[in-house]
Amino acid sequence: MLRFFRPKSIFVSIYGGILLVTLTVSLCTYAVLNYINDERAQAYTERMSTALFHITAIAIARQDPESRALWVQDAEQLVGAPMRLVNALDFTPTRRERLRLEQGYAVARQGVDQRSQITIRVPLPGKSIYLVSEMDGFGERQARAAANFYLEDLANYPGQESVRLRTLAPFMGFPMVLKPAMDVPLDREQRLRLSQDEVVVTFQELSSSGRSSITVIAPSQSEPGKLLVIGPFDLFERLPMEWLVLAAILALLLITLGSYGVIHALEVKLLAVEATVKKLREGDLTARVTVTGADEIARLADTLNQMAGHTKRLLDSQRELTQAVSHELRTPLARLRFGMEMMAESPDPDDRLQQLDQLDEDIAQLNQLIDEILTYATLEQGTPRLDFEPVDMVALMVRIQRETEALRKPAQLITEAEPGLVADAVPRYIHRVIQNLVGNALRYADKTVKASVHKEGQWAVLTVEDDGPGIPEESRDRVFQPFTRLDDSRTRSTGGYGLGLSIVSRIVYWFGGTIRVDRSETLGGARFIMRWPMHQPRL
């Protein structure tokens, strides 16, 4: 297992990238969480500030200019925070702050750090004066002060308290209603305090929103037997950073387990590919990768197996070709040497001329063999250049007929082609295929050879059959191997080196087609059937 944690292993590389992304996301989340907390704190502060200081500003605006200062001093004692009146703002408000002030809402600004006091500014209704206060926060004392201010305000609207509460509702941000005392659930001590005109503050550990909340209850001065219930309103709580840490740890753990499970499987496959490549490098061309699945590594392994198989086939073919060529060259070379010795020893000029003719025939055979070998080697290479173009198959069959008749073979060739048939091919190679198949059939035919070409769907089909002895079923696959002779003496007597059908097989392979041999149903001899796509990709 430790090998998967090597510094350069794929697991370390991928997991390192995942870890880096996780840390980056965690830092971004931390920054976003801080920003959200600051925005929530700002919104909460301004909402609570408006609920407290808007009603305070209304009360100050009702006072005579001479008594305002004394009223503000009393309000300071009640609220527990310094207050002052200013004729102009001492800062340039933003567009949002300016809109809030114009609508009568409070504007709160935090100091340079979280521990500094909050400065609150709220306009007096109908006055070009602003109430300014500095506070550390909102608590029970401020809630009691707000209740007193609202009770004092409602006293100015006898019989219209409910209407007044609806008017003040936009500046509250939380419920505020007058209820009969009997409809408010209170204990005996709380009712006793209310009967003494005290303000009661109840604390609820967990509200419906999931946070702590408080409710302020005060006896109505204008409507005896009714209570002013303010709230409940939630206390501000910052989103805990522990959530972020816990989420990051859990996410990292899940990513670790998940990535290890996925990457471990990939690493095992890569190690299998690596082991196979080492064996191939050491010369073991039978080595293959055993990888299951359909992912990229499985496809890479399959490609590697195909490459190894192709390489082995090429090397085996090269070795067989070298051995076969050396064997095939011995006979004509031996005849050349023997003929030259006979010519050197013969004093008869006519006999020398006869020996020269035989030497010329041997040289022609050597040229033919070399041409066959070069053609086969060209087709056996990795990927020969094939310039496909449309070939008129009717004209090609006419040409084959004409060339065969010029040889004056004892057997008759009959050619047929579907009218107007045009198929993509390399002209010289498709000509070579038909020529080789027809020539091979003419060697073994008694009287008749038939060659035909037609279309089947998107395939062109070439059929060459004869009335000869045919090919045994157990030998039909061997005829396409290089230098294969099923009847060695007969092949030598009729010419050929066993490369013709091998060349045909390679041409068919590079055409993307197939070729097979069976028995002709009409003529009784061998029948070769070649199929290749009529439309080929262009280079």
Report on the structure:
It is a single chain. This protein is an alpha+beta fold. It folds into 3 domains: 1-128 and 241-269, no CATH class; 139-239, Beta-Lactamase (2-Layer Sandwich), CATH 3.30.450; 386-533, Histidine kinase-like ATPase, C-terminal domain (Heat Shock Protein 90, 2-Layer Sandwich). Helices cover 52% and strands 17% of the residues. It is built from 13 helices and 15 strands. It has a 5-stranded mixed beta sheet, covered by helices on one side. 24% of the residues are buried.
**Radius of gyration, whole Å:** 52 Å
The total beta strand count reads 15
Number of domains: 3
Total of DSSP H or I helical runs spanning 4+ residues: 13
End-to-end separation? 48 Å
Multimerization status: single chain
* Secondary-structure element pattern, one letter each: HHEHEEEHHEHEEEHHHEHEEHEEHHEE
Low-confidence stretches: 1-5, 488-497
Strand numbers in spatial order across the main sheet: 10-12-13-15-14
Mean pLDDT: 79
SSE diagram, text form:
Blueprint: H1 10-62, H2 68-79, E1 83-86, H3 95-102, E2 107-110, E3 118-123, E4 130-135, H4 140-154, H5 161-172, E5 176-180, H6 188-195, E6 200-204, E7 213-219, E8 226-234, H7 241-281, H8 296-345, H9 349-380, E9 389-392, H10 393-407, E10 412-417, E11 422-425, H11 427-444, E12 448-456, E13 459-466, H12 488-494, H13 500-510, E14 514-519, E15 526-533
Parallel strand pairs: 10-12
Antiparallel strand pairs: 1-4, 2-3, 3-4, 5-8, 6-7, 7-8, 9-11, 12-13, 13-15, 14-15
Helix pairs in contact: 1-4, 1-7, 7-8, 8-9, 9-13, 10-11, 11-13
